[in-house]
Amino acid sequence: MARIVILGAGIGGVPMAYEMKETVGKHHEVIVISDSPTFHFVPSNPWVPTSYRKPEDLKIELAPVMKKKGIEFIQKAAAKVDPLNNQVQLVDGSAVAYDFLIIATGPRLAFDEIPGLGPDGYTSSVCHVDHAAIAAQDWDKFMENPGPIVIGAVQGASCYGPAYEYLMILETELRKRKIRDKVPMTFVTAEPYIGHLGLGGVGDTKSMLESAMRHRHIKWITNAKVDKIESGMMFVTEVDDEGKDKKKHELPFKHSMMLPAFTGVDAVRHVDVEGLVNPRGFVLVDEHQRNLTFKNIYSIGVCIAIPPVEKTPLPVGAPKTGYMIESMVTTTAHNIAEELAGKAPSHHATWNALCLADFGDSGVAFLAMPQIPPRNVTWSAQGKWVHTAKIAFEKYFMRKVRKGISEPYYEKAILKLMGVVRIKGK
Ligand SMILES: Cc1cc2nc3c(=O)[nH]c(=O)nc-3n(C[C@H](O)[C@H](O)[C@H](O)COP(=O)(O)OP(=O)(O)OC[C@H]3O[C@@H](n4cnc5c(N)ncnc54)[C@H](O)[C@@H]3O)c2cc1C
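^ Those are the sequences you sent over. The predicted structure of the assembly is below.
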C-alpha cells in the first residue's frame, strides 16, 4: 500500500484529494495536511468587503467530508518538506512519511517586498478570506468618510483579474449608494497595458477593460512600480517601454487594495536541496506535473513555477487559475496511478486560462487555450451573464468540496457556457 500525501487543502489540494482517492481506491492511503481546518473559496473573496458574501459563506469544514471519503486529514501546518527523507516535517515537531507527495500550498503573499504594502501596512488585501474580512472593516470606515480609492497589482504580481474585479465591484457599489461622485478612482498596475492580465491580453481584453474604465471614470497608470506606501499615500514610479523611470506619482487614498507578488510558501521555498524549487520558491515541474529531481514529488496550483508569457518593462507573472489547476489535478491523479501500476507517467496537463471577472452588476469573461500564445482559442466576452455565471461557478465548486465530488467540472462547464453564449449571440 502506497502513502500519497497532499500538502495544502485549497482550490487545488481538495479536488486533488478527492480525485486521487477515487483513482486509487482502498488500495492506497491518501492523506491531506492543511494548516487550516476549513477550505476557502478564494475567487469569491473580492465580494466580502462590500458584504456581498460573509467570510463564513466561503468556508467549508474539511474533517467530516475527508473522513467520509476515507481520506486522513491532518490539521497542522507543515514546517518543511524533506525530500531527501521522503517526509513532511510539521510545526509540532512530528513528521509524516510519504511514497508520493503532492505539493498544493498555493502562494506566499510577498507584502514584505514593498514598504507599507498589505494588511500589516496601509493597503487592504482580498487574497485570503481573513484579509477580506479586515478589508470589510476598512470599507465600512471608508463609507463614513469617503475619498480617493487606489486599486491594482504591484510589480511581480501574477494575478490581475481579481484587481480589476475588486475595482469594478467597488465602483458598482459606490454608484448604488449614490456617492460615486465623491470618490476619484485610480487603477495602478505593473501590466504594460490595461487588459494584459499576465497573458499578453486575451482577444479584446485591452479595449474591453479600457472601455469599461472610461465609462466608469476610472483613471489608470500602467507600467507602474509601487515604491512605497505610507498612511493614505502611495508612491509610484511609472516606467517607459525600456523599464526606465518616466514619471513619479503620489496618489492619496482613503481605501486601497493592491495585489502583491507571490513566492512559494516557507515550508517549500526554504528547503535546502537543489532542484525542488526556483529562486522564488515555486516548485519546478515537468509536463507531467512531476519534479525532475525528486520524482515522487508532484505539484499543482499556484505554487508551481511557470515562466512569464512575454518580456515586459516591469515583471508581470502568468496567472494560474482554476481551469488550469483542475487539469493539473487530473493529470497528477492519473500519473501517480500509472506509477503505482509500474508504468511511466503519460498524462500532460493542458494549461488553459479561463477567467470570469465580475463587475458587481456585469463582467468580462475570457478564455485562452493554451495560456501561452499563439493560441488555438482566444475568446473574450462581456455582459450581465458573467455575474450570474460567476455565482454559478461558486455554487458548483462549493458543492463539489462539501459533498466530496471527485469529478472535474471546468471542461464540461466551459463547453456549456460557450454554447449558451453562442446561442444567445444568434
Ligand atoms: C483574490 C483572488 C481571486 C481569484 N479568482 C479566481 C477566479 O475567479 N477564477 C479562477 O480560476 N482563479 C482565481 N484565482 C486564482 C486561483 O484559482 C486561486 O488563487 C486558487 O486559490 C489557487 O489554488 P491553490 O490550491 O493553488 O492555492 P490555495 O487555494 O491558496 O490553497 C493553498 C492551501 O495550502 C495551505 N497551506 C499553505 N502553506 C501550508 C503549510 N505550510 N502547511 C499546510 N498547509 C499549507 C493554505 O492554507 C491553503 O489552504 C484567484 C486568486 C485570488 C488571489
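The longest strand covers residues 245-252. Residues 7-13, 33-36, 42-43, 45-46, 77-78, 104-106, 126-127, 159, 162, 265, 267, 301-303, 321-323, 325, 355-356 surround flavin-adenine dinucleotide (CB under 6 Å).

Shout if you want it in another format.
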